[in-house]
Structure formats: structure tokens, C-alpha cells
From TrEMBL:
GO biological process: fucose metabolic process
Cellular component GO terms held in the UniProt record: cytoplasm; membrane; nucleus
Location of this chain's protein in the cell: Membrane
Organism encoding this protein: Kalanchoe fedtschenkoi (Lavender scallops)
Lineage: Eukaryota, Viridiplantae, Streptophyta, Embryophyta, Tracheophyta
GO terms for MF: glycosyltransferase activity
Name listed for the protein in its UniProt record: O-fucosyltransferase family protein
Family per similarity comment: Belongs to the glycosyltransferase GT106 family.
Membrane-topology descriptor: Single-pass type II membrane protein
Disordered: region residues: 419-448
Transmembrane segments: 20-42
Keyword Electron transport part of the UniProt annotation: no
Keywords: Carbohydrate metabolism, Fucose metabolism, Glycoprotein, Glycosyltransferase, Membrane, Signal-anchor, Transferase, Transmembrane, Transmembrane helix
Pathway: Glycan metabolism
Amino acid sequence: MASNRGAWHTRPSKLRIRKFSPFQLAVFITFVFGISIFIFFLCTGDVLLDADQDLSLPEDAPQLENEETPDKLWGPPFSHGLHQCVKPTNKYKAAEGWDHYLTVRSNGGLNQMRTGISDMVAVARIMNATLVIPQLDRRSFWQDSSTFSDIFDEAHFIKSLERDIRVVKELPKDLDSVPRARKHFTSWASMGYYEEMKLLWKDFQVVHVAKSDSRLANNDLPLDIQRLRCRALYHALRFAPPIEDLGKRLVERLRSRGGRYIALHLRYEKDMLSFTGCTYGLTDAESEELRIMREKTSHWKLKKINSTEQRIGGSCPLIPKEVGIFLRALGYPSSTLIYIAAGEIYGGDDRLLELRARFPNLVFKETIATREELEAFSDHASQSAALDYIISIESDVFIPSHSGNMARAVEGHRRFLGHRKTITPDRQGGPRKRGVSPPGVKGRARFRSEESFYENPYPECICNREKDSY
């Protein structure tokens, strides 16, 4: 046995490993690689396609439905039990009969005015002032002659806020001729700023606010002031009964047609494209028309805009074609009912051809309401926008093609109502705390770059404690 073990151990020493020259080694590797490539092409040749072949599905190809469609596409995100909470704290005192008055001119479109008015409610509270029903902007691009009571339920507004501030329909007659302090309050101002503004009452009984939008900071305000802003926007600023009634009827008609629907806020109006300088997909003549419009609009400060840089920087809306591609990529079937919440689309129906080819069930106010129902709202852009707002709030899914005043307001309201599904390219409306400014941003730019309070009122107006509910 011993000799056998010894023989076994000595055999390896007799083997000789043949050495290959560099040339022989290279030939061997090339041969093996060639055989591998041949086998690969032989096995996969039946599925290889010509590089120039069109890979898109034919128009009449059947659309595959995802088995998870109801939950994945239509279901709201998980809200972790969070709900609206706007009840004042125990330290909050009821309004008093102050003899100082704030008069306000609310500037901008519908949602810019709505959030601005909510800011002014909070400012009136901080400054111990009586708020006179605001005057609405009649000089904006829309040139809407609507008054406050044409758009909002004035009596409800006054009644809802009676514990918070005193609101009157008009300035007392004996104060019509008294000198007024005319103020352009600083944008994104803090609580301390308005505490200092109380000094105005030493010399004036009336302060006129020339602009209402973005007058309050998004963050670092007392909890009761933040919740007051939510009570003002989501409870007090109810639309006038004719608008509310028609809005609800239109929602019911949409439900009767498909059960579920998407509200698509398609930002592709002429003024918006001109203001942002976004001309991607437009003809040279259309681009020039927008440039001329921008030059002639005196209150638009930026005149020369590089459209390519705007688009690369994410400052332009998705064009209608891209919206269609986006929705199909998410998995929505071509049969999806889509309500277009928007003003007049620049370029008209031709601009919607490729979107409609993917989603034939596109509807507008004009296709679900009668001419008689809409007649009262003709030439009143803000009232018409209010209908879009109601339909967007009540939709199963809300999708804005660009971030703007309406997109932010609707997203915030849907969060407040229970985190209803809102889809933007990077999120779907789930709970998250309001974003602060990016690192390194300093000065007043820090306040401008913060996420809007009205876009995401969490955590002040959304919580998980029942005792804070309204």
C-alpha cells in the first residue's frame, strides 16, 4: 500500500505542460471567440430585426391590459392614515371687532387670486385688521370682469371666517376719503415682517394692498396661522352656487360615461408659451408670433428667451404628443376617458391630433355641457377655470403637463382631501413633507425656491390625530 501511495504522488511530476507561443495563443482565443459568435447568431437569428425596422405597434394593434390596472393605475397612494386637520389650537382666540381695515386687489388668474386671498386672510389676522372683500384682477391677460361674488360664495366666506377675522363687503362710507397707506408687501414675508407692519396703524386706519400673491412665507410660521390659511382656501373660498352646481353636474356626466376619468391640465395656452418662451414643436411663424406677444406685454420683464435652454432646464410644458406617450408608458389603455382642463390650446385641434390618436376619448367642457349651460360663463375666464378646478379635484387621477398655479393648487387640495392620485413625472401624490430650498441657495432666493405651502400643506394641515380634525 505504501508503495502504491508513493507511485501516485510521483506521477504528476512526470507531466510536462506544453508552452504556447504568443501567436498560437492569439489564434486559439480568436477561434474560440468566433465559434461563440457563430453559435449566438445561429440561436437568435430568428428574432433579430433590421436596425431600420419600425418597432412601433400598428394603430389597430390590441392593447395589453395590465392585470394590476385598477390598483396600479387608478388607486390612490397609501396615505398612512393621514387626514386633514385645520382645527385651531387651544391658544387661538376668536376674532375681535378691530377698527383697522385692509383693502386688497388680488392679482393674477383664478388660482393665483385664491391663494393670494388666503394669504390676506392670514395677514389680516396677524395685523388685527378687518378684511374688506377683495377686488379681483381685471387687468391680467384674461381680462375677466368678474367680481368676488361672481366667482365665490361671498356670504359663506364671511360666515366661515367669523371666528378668525372680521370680513366686510365694503369699506365704511366714512372711511372712503381718508388717506390710505398703499403697500406692496414683501414676497414670502415672515410673521415678524407683519408684526412690524402694525406700526402703520399709528398713522393710518386703512392699508391698501396692491398685490396679494405670495405675500406669506411657506415655512416657519405659527401653526395656527398655517391652519388658518388652509381653512380660508379649502373651506371659506367656496365657489359661487352656479359654478358649484354646474361643476358637480359635469362630474356626474363624466362618471356616467366611463366611471373613472383622468383630468389632464394641459398647459399649452398662447400666453403661457409666450411668457416662458417655449417654442419646441411650433412652426417658425408661431414662434415669431409668441415673441412679438412677449415684447408687447409690458409687465413681462424677460423678453429674450432661449427656448432650447428653457426646455433642457425643465421649464417648458410637455407638448400634447409627449403627454400621450407618457400616459401610454404608464399603462393607461387607449379607452381611458380624459378630461382636458385647460384654456384654448395654441394651434387648436391640430395640436391634439397625436394625443387623440393614442387616446380617442378626449373631452372638454364644451363636449359634456350644453351651450346654454356654458353661456353664463362665456367671456369670464376665471369662472370657466373654476369649473375645470372642480372637475380636476373630483377626478380619479389628476395629471398636470407643467407646474403652474393651478397644478400646484389642485395637487395641494387633493393632498388635503386624502392624497388623491396626482401624477407628475417624478411622483404620484403620496404623503411627504413640504420641500425646503435646495442646499446652497441663499438670500430671498431661498424663499422663492421652497415648495409652495398651497402645493403641499403637510405637516401643518395634514396629520394623524383625530382631535385636530376640523
